[in-house]
Design brief:
binds arginine, four-stranded parallel beta sheet, alpha/beta, globular, three-stranded antiparallel beta sheet
Length: about 575
């Protein structure tokens, strides 16, 4: 690969004796291509070189020896040095690289030898798998795929909420009214009803609340009756969750949830005791922290907490996965929880490498366009219903646009689910997400269906032509017009885009990229006749169409979106 940035950095490094890698980081891609394809902002060096940026620019410019084949022009504008790449060199470079790598195009070895644990999805047993968990499942799943593509060794963990005081309550409610509910046929809805009812009773009756707390303690102490009921709830819930995972195509390498750590917390408590930092506070045992609330390790009755289980999980993951990074994908409501846990983790006596590698990948809330979505107010939107609705809405759109389409059901599934996934990943994760059916299913908007639609268009062009030309047979000079080079420049950014995704743990960078690629292809398609021009032009343009289609597919699949062949 020619790697223009590297070439520029190399030359500037020769001219200034400054570090090449550092210089490479400064290089920008101007928004307006009239300002060149790459620009070097000299003000970044002003402090170091103690000169005004224009003077630095002039000095560097004097010494530059640019490769004529790679660059057609270099010029100074104010404190910037602008570089214009030679289109032929660019086209040749990008497409020959594609030809070499094919479906692996964009991959890299930055992850080689590095272990990453991604903790995502993690719904709570006996509670509905709701739309908040959708974000964790989708964001975590996309990160999982991109890390893998970049050669990281990834472990996806579904840290199920299958333990905690709420089970004490459920067990108590079940003991009292179990036979009034049809748990087998509709487990989560029925268990939720029991949960709401027992909560009400707990508010009125201290004794019931006490029993609930004790039930959880008994569960921790392996009381056979409590364990048996708990196991049944867990199994039934997992079966329901699996239906959602099947629709989303989610997979996990480990299903070790909170209960997995029940016998691993004693060690945590002992280590913390030895650290001298574990103190009594109102009957509980806590670690006091600076500038934040204390982290509760053991409750008054000796039972453990969500935080203790996360601490045990860190210890376990450090030992068993030797992670370089451990990511936790949850809503920003848990910011304090992870701050506390990551701080206390420093007392566990594990290598600094591990505590440095902990990262909370937080995301915003989901809001319906019509209003708030919340469990507490009783408007529970179940994820399964929501996905089904997406599919049926996609079906309607297809029915309107293309009633003759074959395999309508399969296409509707890909389009509907794809729309939901893309919507979830289209903005920076920390922003609240607006759930608006019409916007996310709009084929012309910045949506999943739009990307699928452009992909389908590349497919149908190739199908109409009836062949895919060989790279060796195309004439690069036929792709140096503005619309084509724009597409090629976007293609060239694929690998860098993926690296940014893992650098920031931000899948929206890839979503944005796929929109850019789709839009640049759309302009190319409108500006250039692909089929029917002379054979040379046709072959070159068909080849570009083929490459774009493949990258759209690879990119969408990394986000967890399936591509239909027609729509
Ligand atoms: N079950 C939790 C919830 O629904 C999320 C768990 C996240 N992972 C973790 N290791 N704490 O809020």
């Amino acid at each position: 690969m020619l790697n223009f940035k590297e070439k520029i950095a190399e030359e500037i490094s020769k001219a200034t004796n400054l570090n090449k890698e550092e210089l490479e980081n400064y290089i920008e891609v101007p928004k307006d291509s009239a300002m060149g394809d790459y620009a070097f902002p000299c003000f970044k060096l002003a402090k170091e070189l103690r000169k005004a940026p224009p003077a630095i620019a002039a000095e560097i410019y004097e010494k530059l020896e640019m490769d004529k084949e790679a660059f057609s022009k270099v010029e100074i504008v104010g404190g910037y040095i602008n570089f214009y790449t030679n289109s032929t060199a660019l086209v040749k470079d990008v497409l020959s690289q594609y030809n070499e790598k094919k479906e692996k195009y964009g991959d890299s070895e930055i992850g080689k030898g590095k272990n990453v644990v991604i903790d995502y999805s993690a719904p709570n047993i006996a509670k509905p798998f709701h739309i908040g968990h959708l974000r964790s499942t989708v964001i975590g799943g996309a990160l999982y795929n991109v890390y893998k593509f970049l050669d990281f060794n990834v472990t996806g963990v579904n840290h199920l909420g299958d333990y905690g005081t709420q089970f004490g309550k459920l067990i108590e409610g079940y003991k009292m009214w179990g036979d009034e509910y049809d748990i087998d046929s509709n487990p989560i809805d029925e268990l939720t009803k029991i949960y709401i009812r027992i909560n009400e009773l707990c508010k009125q009756d201290e004794n019931v609340l006490e029993n609930c707390r004790n039930n959880f303690k008994k569960l921790e102490d392996k009381d056979p009756y409590c364990v048996e009921i708990w196991e049944r709830f867990r199994k039934l819930s997992l079966k329901e969750f699996q239906r959602v995972y099947d629709m989303l195509g989610s997979t996990f390498d480990s299903w070790n949830g909170e209960s997995f750590y029940s016998d691993k917390m004693q060690e945590v408590v002992e280590i913390l005791e030895k650290s001298g930092r574990l103190v009594e506070s109102e009957g509980a045992r806590v670690i006091e922290l600076e500038n934040m609330a204390p982290c509760i390790i053991e409750k008054t009755n000796g039972s453990t907490t969500y935080a203790t289980r996360d601490l045990a999980a860190i210890l376990y993951r450090a030992r068993n996965y030797d992670f370089d990074k451990a990511l936790y994908v949850t809503s920003y409501e848990q910011v304090l929880h992870f701050k506390q846990v990551f701080e206390v983790a420093k007392l566990l006596g594990i290598d600094k490498k591990y505590t440095d590698g902990l990262e909370h990948v937080a995301f915003g809330m989901v809001r319906l366009k019509e209003g708030k979505m919340s469990t507490r107010e009783g408007i529970i939107i179940k994820l399964e219903d929501l996905l089904k609705e997406a599919i049926s809405r996609a079906e309607k759109v297809i029915e309107e646009k293309n009633p003759e389409l074959e395999n309508k059901e399969d296409v509707a599934r890909k389009v509907g689910i794809g729309a939901v996934i893309f919507n979830d990943l289209s903005n920076s994760r920390i922003k609240d997400e607006i759930f608006d059916w019409d916007a996310m299913l709009n084929f012309q908007g910045e949506t999943g269906p739009y990307i699928q639609y452009i992909y389908v268009r590349t497919k149908s062009v190739l199908e109409k032509a009836g062949y895919v030309p060989k790279f060796e047979d195309i004439d690069i000079n036929e792709l140096t017009d503005e619309a084509s080079t724009n597409v090629i420049k976007t293609i060239a950014n694929f690998s860098n885009t993926l690296e940014q995704v893992v650098d920031k743990n931000e899948p929206s960078i890839l979503s944005r990229y796929l929109i850019d690629l789709s839009q640049s292809f759309s302009s190319f398609y409108n500006a250039n006749k692909i089929i029917g021009e002379d054979k040379e032009k046709q072959d070159a343009r068909l080849y570009l169409t083929y490459v774009v289609g493949n990258i759209l597919k690879t990119g969408a699949n990394l986000l967890g979106i399936q591509m239909p062949d027609r729509m």
